[in-house]
Amino acid sequence: MRAFFVVVIILLAGVFLSFSASAATTHACTLTKPILINYGTVSSVVVNTTPQSQTFNIQISCPIVLAIAAPGSIIIAYTSATTASNSRAILTSSTTDTIPVQLTCTSQTCTTATEMKVADSKSIPSSTFLGLLANKQYSLPFTLSTVPQSVAAGSYATSITLTVTWNICTAGILVLCNDNDTGSDTLVIPISLNVTNDCATITAPDINFGSAPVAGSFSTQPGIVTLVCTKGATYTVGINDGQNSSGGVRNMSYTNSGTTNLLSYDIYQSTTNNRWGSVGSQRWGSASATTTSTDTMTKTYNYTAKIFPNQNTPPAGTYNDTLVVDVAF
Predict the structure, then answer these.
(1) Which of 154, 171, 205, 289 is most solvent-facing, going by the fewest CB within 10 Å?
(2) Where does the chain cross the membrane (predicted)?
(3) Whole-angstrom distance, CA of residue 192 vs CA of residue 159
(4) DSSP assignment, residue 275?
């Protein structure tokens, strides 16, 4: 019986030692989730000219203080994107327009900033990521930036998937590691951007009627207002009644010896008799523009300006007025 008990004790000790060795390799460290990238609401003009950029951290957290001297590595793999083109993620909407998104491993993480495309991977050696250690976690900065693009207004979205694999030391002295924590996890990052309507430029040259001896001698002046606005946008264009209007009639003014004199005129859409104003049906719809560029962004509006010929001719002088062109989406 005594020999039997000795054998049992030895077997139990063997089981205990095997369990302890297995416990040393359990995955104590975890990948922090979730990460969301929301660029917010941005004018289409800005989206077309300026990259929208956000930096995020891929963060591995552990329950104990990490051993910073021993070797290790963290591998970041750009596994996939919900929608992609040329190995880049693309933001999509209900329109056919898309906005490419660049994933960049920043200089803090990859020594030199490097774009990562779908299927690329980066191995971050201990010599680099030790500088990113904060007590019990590694925080590796990456950046997601849009590529400037002319697109229609709307809500754009996609998501990317990264696979993070680590082999880091949780117990060691100098260059030796007594206990490596190894693990792998996926990180799905939703990306969104809301694009709003806007106009990049409104070009409206001055109107000059020239000189004439009487009101009935002034000639009609043609003019063009040019707008560069959001691709595919629907809007109306208005012109206010100026600084000297009276009873819905536009007037240029000239002040002499304290007396303000008026010279009445008006502006009409194209060559019609439809007054171009700022309210209701007097506004000019984008669908009726004189010309529209292929990308639908640039539209022109031809008009005619006339001084009323049957008014009394006011005193000689230089008459002027200031008008405001507005766009309403």
Answers:
(1) 205
(2) none
(3) 8
(4) B
Alpha-carbon span 278 to 204, nearest angstrom = 15
DSSP state of 282: G
3-state secondary structure of 41: strand
Q: How far is CA 64 from the centre of its chain?
A: 39
Task: Pull the structure tokens for residue 114.
Answer: 């490097």
Neighbours of 116 (CB within 10 A): 21
Which residue from 260, 252, 268, 267 is spatially nearest to 320, judged by alpha carbons?
Answer: 252
- The amino acid sitting at 191 is I
Whole-angstrom distance, CA of residue 300 vs CA of residue 102: 35
Helix (H) or strand (E) holding 46: helix 44-49
Residue 15 and residue 8: Cα distance in Å, rounded?
11
| Of 184, 54, 78, 72, the residue nearest 128 (C-alpha) | 72
pLDDT in tens for each of the 329 residues of the chain?
333 333 333 333 333 333 333 334 455 889 999 999 999 999 999 999 999 999 999 999 988 777 665 667 899 999 999 999 999 999 999 999 999 999 999 999 998 999 999 999 999 887 777 777 777 888 999 999 999 999 999 999 999 999 999 988 776 555 566 678 899 999 999 999 999 999 999 999 999 999 999 999 999 999 999 999 999 999 999 999 999 999 999 999 999 999 999 999 999 999 999 999 999 999 999 999 999 999 999 999 999 999 999 999 999 999 999 999 999 99
Q: Are 76 and 124 in contact (CB under 8 A)?
A: yes
Residue 261 · residue 254 · CB < 8 Å: yes
Helix (H) or strand (E) holding 80: strand 73-81
Distance of alpha carbon 58 from alpha carbon 114, whole angstroms: 16
Separation CA 257–CA 215 (nearest Å): 21
